[in-house]
User: What shape does this take?
Amino acid sequence: MNKDKELEELFFAQKPQFDDNEAFMASLNKRLEAVEYVKQHQEATIRRYKMALVAAFVVGIISGIVTIVFMLTMPAAVPLFTFRVQTGWLSWLAANSRLLTASVLSLLVTFGLISIVSNIQDIRNMHYSKNETLTNANQKNPSPSLA
Amino acid sequence: MTREGFIALVGHEQEALRGFLLYLCCGNKDEADDLAQDALVKAYLSSAGYQEKGRFRSWLFKIAHNTFLNHKASCRTTESLDEARTLVSNTSADASFAHQDLYLALRTLPPKERSAITLFYLNGYNIKEIAAITEASEDAVKKQLSRGRDQLKEKLKL
Assistant: This one.
């Protein structure tokens, strides 16, 4: 498609000129600083949340391992739990209670380990450290509300 | 992309971007600058995914175009030409230069035609590039340009 000469000349003649470029860039810089602060604050919050999650998983895993060890050191003939009603599969469940509980706990421990690894990877992939975030925020916005 | 790097790149392109948005906003400088700032913040937030090496300006224009369309959609107003005339003549930034006629004529165009016309005549993009920026087909852009040109010529009595 060819350009219409008259329109082209009209647009060319009326090309806007700005004399407040510096003010515009300063305003943009300020906005980006605010955006970055919020972004960093969000990242720090997520990081704290993930750290708490990792701590909870670690505690869960330790408890799980202790329970498994405790179960395995108990006398083999004593079932972990019994049922008042004695049906075929409930008896089987009671007879194998220690093995079944140990398997379920092992599964939970495995899931916990996977979650710990993925959470630690997420934390490591985050761009800024908590201290850096707060230092930057304090340097840029030394107001008491941001400190 | 770091903030410093982004600011450096934007420094070269901001005038073109603001000019584009000023035309889309038909001379309303405050509105255009607000949209430019919004578009640049959006661009900064998505700059991690920016991979179109060497096409930073087109990428910015694409974001600015979408920001403008969203803004238009969020404040659906059916301003008549008379209302537009009042708005333009009341804007202090416009008092200094005589763009009113062109702005008023542009105001009568639908936002997508206005974008296509501005990108074509003001920013010098070709149809393929305009299609990429506005995310429309080349045929659609050709139609928008043809209709927009006819309407502008009629309004401006060229």
